[in-house]
Amino acid sequence: MTDASLSVGTVPARARELAARLAALFERDVEIVGQLNDAQQRLHRANDRLWSGLAPDAFGLIYDGAATAGHSQIATLIEKVSSGAERGSRTAVLKALQDAHWQLHRGFCRYQSACEERRQLAFDVGELSQQLTEALTGAGFSAKEARNADVHQLAVGIRPTTGDRGGSGR
After folding, report:
1. What is d(CA 92, CA 94) in angstroms, rounded to the nearest whole number?
2. Which of the residue ranges 81-85, 113-117, 161-165 would you say has the lowest mean pLDDT?
3. H-helix segments, 84-150
4. Span 82-94, mean pLDDT?
5. Percent of the chain whose pLDDT exceeds 70
6. Burial status of residue 4 (CB atoms within 10 A of its CB: 0-12, 13-18, 19 or more)
7. Does residue 42 surpass a pLDDT of 60?
8. How far is 145 from 148, CA to CA, in rounded Å?
9. In whole angstroms, what is the distance from residue 161 CA to residue 67 CA?
10. Which of 7, 38, 99, 124 has its CA 20 to 30 A from that of 159?
11. What are the Cα distances from residue 126, in Å, to 25, 112, 133?
């Protein structure tokens, strides 16, 4: 869209305020997605500490040394326990398992919390979007134009004047 197809100051104050609130919610959504990705990576790393590349009978190594336990921090510690190669290996295995458990627990809680926050944010976005659509249609936008309006432009009072007024704001 070119500058010639925009007009400034023709967006009602209520629509500008709603658009600004929506734009802020969109920014918050980006932050939440970052938290979800971080939590997922934490879960992945914690899970990798437990077992990676396990043989079908990985626990056989604990009992008779016959199976390959895979490649992980825990597998290495279990090999040391079964071979008697290192004093205190059993304690190290238990500590590593406990650490991985709590890392998984914290990662899961953070992921679940961010999902819930994002669900609530989606509800708020839906409510504000409906209010913004009503405010814009009341100001002369068609329903399609109101739905496609760019909230970042609207928030600063810029109103598209031609075409479908499509934007990536929502």
Report:
1. 5
2. 161-165
3. 89-138, 143-148
4. 69
5. 65
6. exposed
7. yes
8. 5
9. 72
10. 124
11. 11, 21, 11
